[in-house]
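Box S2. Input/output pair 1.
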Amino acid sequence: MPDRRTLLPPGSTALERNLSVAMADIEDVPIPVRDVRRAATVPAHLMPWLAWERSVDRWDDSWPEATKRKVLADSHRVHQLKGTVGAVRRAVEPLGYLLDVIEWWETTPPGPRGTARVAIGVLEHGITDAMYAELVRLIDDAWRLSIHRTGLEVHMEARADRRVAVASYDGDEMTVYPYQPGPIEITVSAKAAATHHTIDTITVYPQ
């Protein structure tokens, strides 16, 4: 260990001086505060503590690590937008479900004022009763209280890759003929002009 200056007074005991030397090594211990506070770099075993710090409304240790990091990354935005459709979507979609909120003015004919219904798209993995109850709790927690929810629909959706190919074949036909000059017409306008120049000579004699 390199020599370090101590701040202990001269009258310190041997125990205090030994503790000062031993505890000085803590300066060499890396403290990655930034990495611990970021959702993308926090170690997996510290994720629950970061979720507690960010007031994440819903946390499940059985979630995949990617889902946990997504929930941590969206936590600030969820609290900023709480009460909006965006907050409801951010609270549900990290769990792997698709959410759509249809408000009263988006239906034909328009529904009762101040109402909305929620449609959840369930992918191939389906949904359990426990997960359905948890989704209801998450939606209620982020829901805007001024809007009354009239229903919660669950739809099964299956996604597949669709490939579309487009080909285009185009061409032009052009015929080139030898050059044949046509008649040349020249138009000339005739203009007439006249001029007159007169000189008078006067001789004056003395008397």
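Box S3. Input/output pair 2.
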Amino acid sequence: MPKLSKNRTKVDETVDRSRKYTVEEACALVKKAKFAKFDETVDLAVRLGVNPKHADQMVRGALVLPHGTGQTVRVLVFAKGEKEREAREAGADFAGSDDMVAKVSEGFMDFDRVIATPDMMGAVGKLGRVLGPRGLMPNPKVGTVTFDIGNAVREAKGGKIEYRVEKAGIVHARIGKASFAEGALSDNAKALINALVRAKPSTAKGAYIRSITVSSTMGPGIKIDPGQFIAGGEEG
């Protein structure tokens, strides 16, 4: 695809591979580096100085990004009675109890986030083989197992993301779209990085934030200087 190669080459020339940018500079470059006709997704990759093989160094959590993700999230809720009604009123796309468990076990997968009330987890646990590999299994650590269903659904719809360190020690997460304003992207990036700083395990030794890279779907990776987050802990 010569046109794609030409565009990519032109874009690559705008990024200094040897330089580490500020969050604001990197987010501005991400927008300039966009060349696809669709609205590219912007992702952040943060390499942490942890060993995920050790349970006490597993970094995971969730947060609501200040400006959302730009993604339409389809939410499925496992709940009964009043809580099922609460879920629907809050905007859940799908809600139900044993009937919904059966539907998912039969192959229904048209959803992006799963939330469940604690009393439904016995039944939902049977779907582990289906939901687990896709990262959809509800978990109290990230707020997706809760009786506060209405708030959980609204947060999921409003831009709540989950993050979890992978085997290689890297956290990948969506922070928006290339169409976002530069300030919105940088706000979202800082919110995620600060959340990771706060989640630092006490057993983690040496440098914690090893590297930070931001990129769009088709664009090049742009390195961010982690110094501002390492030195002061938190950056507004």
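Caption for Box S3: The CA atoms of residues 62 and 162 lie 4 Å apart. Strands lie at 41-48, 60-64, 75-78, 94-96, 113-116, 160-164, 170-177, 209-216, 222-224.
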